Amino acid sequence: MVKTAFYVIAAAMVLATILLVALPLWRRSLEQSRRSGRPLAVVLAVLVPVAAIAVYGIVGQPSTLNGVPRQDPAQQQLVDALTKLENHLKQQPKDTQGWLLLGQTMAAIRQPQAALDAYQHALDNAPDNVNAMVGWAEMSAMTRPDHQLADHASDLLHKAVAADPKNQRALWLLGISEYQHGLFAQAIDHWKTLQPLIGPDSEIGKIVSGQLRDAEQQLHGQQAQATDSSSEPGKAATTQPGARLPVTVSLAPALASRLKPGDSLFIYARAVGGPPMPLAATKRPASSLPATVTLTDAMAMMPQRNLSAATQVIVGARISHSGQAMPAAGDLEGESAPIRLPVSAPVSIVVDKVD
After folding, report:
1. HEC string of 54-111?
2. Where are the alpha helices (DSSP H) in 181-277?
3. What is the pTM of this model?
4. Which of 62, 126, 158, 247 has its Cα between 20 and 30 A from that of 137?
5. Which residue, among 269, 261, 254, 250, has the nearest Cα to 354 in the 3D structure?
6. Terminal Cα-to-Cα distance of the chain (whole angstroms)
7. Same domain, yes or no, for 343 and 285?
8. Structurally, how many domains does the chain consist of?
9. What is the pLDDT of residues 284-315, one digit of tens each?
10. Bias category Polar residues: which stretches (predicted)?
């Protein structure tokens, strides 16, 4: 949900990708834009990464907002540049580079469905374009409530890595897809390929190293379980009762006026210092607030990663105006401090901050 490795790496990689797709468009638009100010692609290439870094820098740190709307002096320039780009693409729908730039821009400002649509246009024009394949796969996960990189996304990522074996985003996302599906050996292989490309001692490299350690632990557990099952075929399986985490969620009175009809409430628990996927999550109408739920292992996004496997978690709640789990500007949220499991009483969450 928030403060995840997925978003951190996406933020860091978006600058390089935007610049790559912006340069060809910049060359085409330079002459047309010379009299009207900064070229379109330059405006986007400069403003969007700055916006993206700011956005991802506050993800997981909603206390920096304290309910006060943020004023971005570059906002109007970005809106104007986007409008010009969209108008350009209406006139030139075969401009693959333009669609890629729009997709990267929409991804950076957290509009995943618009980004996905743009990448689909790019793929329609150029089915073998690596940036289009990787962008489509990433945004398809962002538009899903479970953030799964499903079959078609996984196929595109395999195709992208085959075409460009050193594509950092493709290697990272393909590893995430494989991890989600319990293919830990394959995830380890792709993340080990990624490590030297980004530098293991960099901040992003440390995140990848953490993911690698987790995948290796999961693989060892998977192998041990398979060995136990094969060595004792007649032994009846035994299971421990699944973990249960009761949660109560309320909305701060100061934010009651921000609740809109049709808003969705996401309640989740994530491992402290763990990988990006929540250990358990549930969705319900925000109109049900105040709400009481019990998070269980049955709500895990991956069977191998659930509440029973954790010792400390952070519990959070997010009210989404879009109905999507992907955080967006204007969403309301609240999170707990780290909590040691099991708990003896319900965890109380107050939604008291504006994203």
Report:
1. HHHHHCCCHHHCCCCCCCCCCHHHHHHHHHHHHHHHHHCCCCHHHHHHHHHHHHHCCC
2. 184-198, 203-231
3. 0.55
4. 62
5. 254
6. 13
7. yes
8. 2
9. 888 889 888 888 887 877 666 788 888 899 99
10. 219-241
Ordered mean pLDDT values, 10 residues apiece, the chain (355 residues):
44 46 43 42 44 36 39 64 86 91 85 92 94 92 80 88 91 86 84 86 81 82 63 45 83 92 90 79 87 84 77 92 81 92 90 91
Whether residue 305 lies inside any domain: the answer is yes
CB neighbours of 196 closer than 8 A, spacing ≥ 6? Answer: none
* CA–CA separation, 248 and 246 (whole Å): 7
**Quick one: DSSP state of residue 241?**
P
Q: What is the tens place of the pLDDT at every residue in 91-115?
A: 999 999 889 988 988 888 788 899 9
With contact defined as beta carbons under 8 Å apart, do 296 and 243 qualify? Answer: yes
* Burial degree of 3 (CB within 10 A; 0-12, 13-18, 19+): middle
Range of the domain at 345: 244-354
Q: What are phi and psi of 16, to 5 degrees?
A: -65, -40
CA 316 to chain centroid, in Å, comes to 16
- 294 and 195 in one domain? no
H or E element that contains 269: strand 264-271
Helix or strand run (H / E) with residue 317: strand 312-320
Cβ atoms < 10 Å from Cβ of 54? 13
Q: What is the pLDDT of residues 196-227, one digit of tens each?
A: 888 777 777 888 888 888 888 877 776 776 66
Q: Is residue 166 part of a domain?
A: yes
Long-range CB pairs of 344-349, under 8 A, 24+ apart, other chains included: 345/246, 346/246, 346/247, 346/248, 346/292, 347/245, 347/246, 347/247, 347/248, 347/315, 348/247, 348/248, 348/250, 349/247, 349/248, 349/249, 349/250, 349/267, 349/315, 349/316, 349/317
